Amino acid sequence: MVKNSRSLEHCARKCSKNKKTFTCRAFYFDHQNRKCHLLPFDRFMDGAHREHRVNFDLYEKKDYVRECIIGSGVNYKGRRAVTKANIPCQSWTESFPHEHTFQPARLGKKDLNGNFCRNPKNESSGPWCFTTDPEVRHQECGLPQCSQVECMRCNGEDYKGPMDHTESGKECQRWDSSKPHRHPYQPKKYPDKGLNDNYCRNPDNRVRPWCYTMDPQTPWEYCNISVCDPGNGSDVDATSSCFSEQGQSYHGTVSVTPSGVTCQRWDSQFPHNHTYSPQNYKCKDLRENYCRNPDGAEIPWCFTTDPNQRLAFCTNIPRCETENIDTEDCYEDNGGNYTGNLSKTRSGIPCGLWANHSSSGESSVGLERNLCRNPDQDKHGPWCHTTDPSIPWDYCKLKRCDKSPNISAHPRSISLVSKTSCFIHKTTRIVGGAQVHKAKDGSWVVSIQKG
After folding, report:
1. Hey, which residues does 393 pair with through a beta bridge?
2. Closest among 314, 342, 315 to 328, alpha carbons compared
3. How many CA atoms within 13 Å lie on the side-chain side of 402?
4. Average pLDDT in the 23-30 region?
5. Between the CA of residue 388 and those of 23, 32, 126, 315, 349, what are the distances in Å?
6. What CA–CA distance (Å, rounded) separates 277 from 198?
7. For 70-94, what is each residue's pLDDT tens digit?
8. Parent domain of 359
9. 218 and 243: one domain?
10. Same-domain check for residues 373 and 282
11. β-strands 399-400, 330-331 pairing
12. pLDDT tens, 294-336?
């Protein structure tokens, strides 16, 4: 069945409106002709096969393709056909070996097809079936909860499981949708956060995975995800005298800021209130008042004991990597093609994450992490946003490969806590174009991206 469609959201609504003579299980969207093709089958049905085509995206209703349940599993329409004791299920249209009144024709909306496990009466024990064993009339199928298919470690920053409902049972909003709640966590802006579909995730290092909800009155809620066994709890990448990458494995004892201010204890709320308590972030080693990185910031940091300075980055901790890049790395022309790994300015200030400074929901190619780049072809060379609020951006400590004159790699000294700067900057730099909103339906479909 082919329908003209203005958008994916419109197409999804069409597929959701099942008619007596047609049950839509999936659709594929023709981007070029703005048409949606409604399908009465999914990838698992006999005779179905998949092809990769340009300009086409396939979407399938989750209830038909996933093998885990939400709550009681009343909406489960998967293909499990054996009980928890591995006894084959009896077909719903058959009355042998067990007679019953659950007739598919009478209970059309319950999807009593074949001999698949179902929960037509919304029983708390979950999907079940009549069995082919004359001695066992019916039995539960033992389908796992989606919250238990994949457990989470630590605070769930790396959780990529299929849970898509909150702990109160609310359906999650798709990450690539701004309805009903606008938000900054677009998948293309955070490609490494696993923001697929509407699954529970933790892109901003909160206490545990969460999601925006489809309830206009509830912006977001935490999700109830099972916790993995702690194991031995050791961090094989832990360092104590230096830090690597963003320093999330730094377990050293530096407890003062670069300007000499003592750090505030993590288990204290004075002079600054915060949520990064050792109880909430048990695997982040928030001991004493040592510099740490519990939220995935650019480098380790701490709250300070100065009431007038909430936090400070611990730039006084050295990086474990050699600093040869400062003297050996260089760029050609204006540095528009520079792809090196330098991530600090000419004055030594760590670069900030590009994702935190984008004016668009779309990420620009090559703007990884907080590495020096030149996305706007600045004639003076690669630059980056900084982690110092008083200096929005600055050029990086790089030189041209031909050693031609360039901006100084050693400008006058800058204090990281100073309220003034000897540099004069524009307030902001704009990289990328205008934001594009892609309206998509909530959470009922699984997207299979075109190849």
Report:
1. 385
2. 342
3. 7
4. 88
5. 57, 45, 54, 11, 7
6. 29
7. 999 999 999 999 999 999 999 999 9
8. 323-431
9. no
10. no
11. parallel
12. 988 889 999 999 999 999 999 999 988 744 444 467 899 999 9
Q: What does pTM read for this prediction?
A: 0.66
The count of C-alpha atoms lying within 13 angstroms of the C-alpha of 313, restricted to the half-sphere facing its C-beta, is 22
CB 3 within 8 A of CB 11: yes
Residue 325 vs residue 69, higher pLDDT: 69
Q: Which two tokens stand for residue 165?
A: 């409902």
Are the CB atoms for 11 and 5 separated by under 8 Å?
A: yes
Which of these ranges, 20-29, 208-217, 423-432, has the smallest mean pLDDT? 423-432
Q: Using alpha carbons, select from 97, 36, 235 the residue that is nearest to residue 115.
A: 97
Q: Using an 8 Å Cβ cutoff, are 27 and 37 in contact?
A: yes
Burial class (CB in 10 A: 0-12, 13-18, 19+), 4: exposed
- The strand pair at 128-130 and 138-140 is best described as antiparallel
Residue 323 CB contacts under 8 Å (≥ 6 apart), including other chains: none
pLDDT digits (tens, 9 = 90+) for 115-142: 999 999 999 999 999 999 999 999 999 9
Q: Which residues contact 43 (CB under 8 A, 6 or more apart)?
A: 26, 50, 60, 65
Q: Can you tell me the mean pLDDT for 351-356?
A: 82
Is the CB of residue 304 less than 8 Å from the CB of residue 257? yes
Closest to 39 measured CA to CA, from 55, 51, 22, 53:
22
Residue 172 to residue 197: CA distance in whole angstroms: 9
Return the bridge partners of 171, or none: 165
- One-letter identity of residue 119: N
| DSSP code at position 139 | E
β-strand partners of 60 = 26, 446
Residue 361 has pLDDT above 50, yes or no: no
448 domain-assigned: no
Residue 54 sits in a domain whose CATH number is 3.50.4.10
- Domain end position, chosen among 117, 143, 169: 143
Rounded to 5 degrees, φ, ψ at 423 are: -100, 150
Q: How far apart are the first and last CA of the chain?
A: 24
**DSSP strand E in 62-153: where?**
128-130, 138-140
Cα separation, 300 vs 282, whole angstroms: 17
Task: Return the pLDDT at 137.
Answer: 97
Token pair of 184, please? 């900054």
Residue 438 within a domain:
no
Question: What sign has the CA pseudo-torsion 174, 180, 183, 186?
Answer: positive
Nearest to 252 by CA among 236, 264, 241: 241
